[in-house]
Specification:
Strand order of the largest sheet: 1-5-6-7-8
Structural class: mainly beta
Strand content: over 45%
Radius of gyration: 12 Å
Number of helices: 1
Number of strands: 8
Length: 88
């Protein structure tokens, strides 16, 4: 099971922090959010961010509008993904 670092995201619209992430990417890859969710749930891959030397694992959360991804570190969910730059 590869452990994959996420270094960028795509959102629509980009400046709205309450709208969902559409794609995650890094190091030459870019996947739709649904594919990342499926990969996490199937145990195929794990995903993480690394901000200021601190690792945060990407997890799947069920919300009122369906499943989405969010980072989790030190027992807390946080918004590390939203701080990442736009994927090309």
């Amino acid at each position: 099971m590869p452990d994959v670092q996420v270094t960028c995201i795509n959102k629509q619209p980009r400046d709205n922090s309450h709208e969902g992430i559409t794609h995650l990417g890094g190091g030459g890859w870019k996947w739709p959010r649904s594919e990342v969710i499926r990969s996490i749930e199937n145990g195929t891959n794990t995903f993480f961010t690394l901000v200021s030397g601190k690792r945060a694992d990407v997890g799947v959360v069920s919300g009122p509008n369906g499943k989405y991804v969010r980072t989790h570190a030190d027992g807390y969910y946080n918004d590390n993904l939203l701080a990442l730059p736009e994927c090309p």
